[in-house]
Amino acid sequence: MRQYSQQPEAGGSFTQLLRHDKTEATYFFYVAPIIESIGGVQFLQKTGYCSVMVNTSKLQELVENTELTPNSTLSIVNARNETIASNRLGGQGDMDDMYWDVEDDKNVIVQRTELKLAEGWSIVSRIPVRELTTDMQAIKQVSIVAGVGMTLSMLLLGYYFLNSLTRPVMGLVADMRRMGGRELGHRVKVRSTNEVGALAYDINRMIENMEHMTRDILHAQAQLYELKLSKKQAEFSALQSQINPHFLYNTLNCISSIGLEYGSREIAKITSCMSRIFRYSIKQDELVSIREEVQCIRDYMQIISIRYENRYAMEVEVDDAIAELKTPKMILQPLVENAVYHGLGSKESGEGLQVSGSLNEQGDVCFRISDTGRGIDADRLANLRAKLEAAPESTDSAAISSIGLSNIHARIRLLFGEAYGVHVESMPDAGTTVIVVLPGIQLG
To answer: Which of 17, 41, 80, 169 is the most exposed place for a label (fewest CB within 10 A)?
Structure first.
């Protein structure tokens, strides 16, 4: 047995590898100083050494039982480069004797791992590259097959994707060309449920909206044409009945002057009112102020009062708040005239006529022409209301040129829309009320 006489370092150290002469067993010692820590004269001084003997046979068994490739080497090496345990060459020996100088060999992988708990000690492994890659051949083959399969799958998926995308797009382009050729009834065929299908659906909805807008525009243009036609025919009728307006003005003024000269105030009053009514009726503006329209009614009522010797009670009540709003010209005078000739006149006295105007809850202008005359029976009232509803679509020249309920109702609806117009309420022997609804438009 070899003797070990080297003094250990202050922090403890491992001895060199020792071999028993008889048993051939190898071992080494770990020697650490004992420091006094209780107190006394030798406090914090070395009082002795602790020596631990380690038999390398257990380390050798651990290394030999480690699973390695056939030609791999695993060794535990101490700080003196001595092999403590190895799975090759029977175990211990110098590191130089175990040809560890082949780290530069490209066919061998050498790895050295330092042990943290034993300074200078390390675990050294030497593995041939060929043996590492032997088990990878099967993986390599499987990877190649998997790669080829994935490539084919990607190609098939790509073809399917492109086909599912390009086919609807080409169909969409073809449908758009047909619609570009003015096939108005044609629609885009929805060939898929993806984004292209959603686009086709939106295009069809857009085309339907455009067709609705086109129909609305054509309907509005037709209404505008009817309005212009109604206006022109009314102007033509007025011109036919009054050939020379200036001559008529002068004649009426002349009659008024003669009436005043001979003391006939009634003649003067009638001619003066007629002159103002006629001048107002042929005024070029289509929309006038409500104040002007009401003044025309007052002039007409003065003529009726003189003619019938104040037989009928006539009253006009129009709110000042609507006096400067706009109204179509000559819509109230014909209604008042109808109320006088068709509603009144059946009794000697007690009958009356009232014209009122105000804003309703919706902010629209509402006129009410009410008489206390004979009224209208249910059948005639139903027929009258039916004619009023059909008036905007009527193109009969006689109906358009006539000055009556249907003509006024048609003018209002053509100007402002179907929400406005004329409505009639009546009961036999209880009178008739004509309601006119107009939008509240300020004078520009």
So the answer is: 41
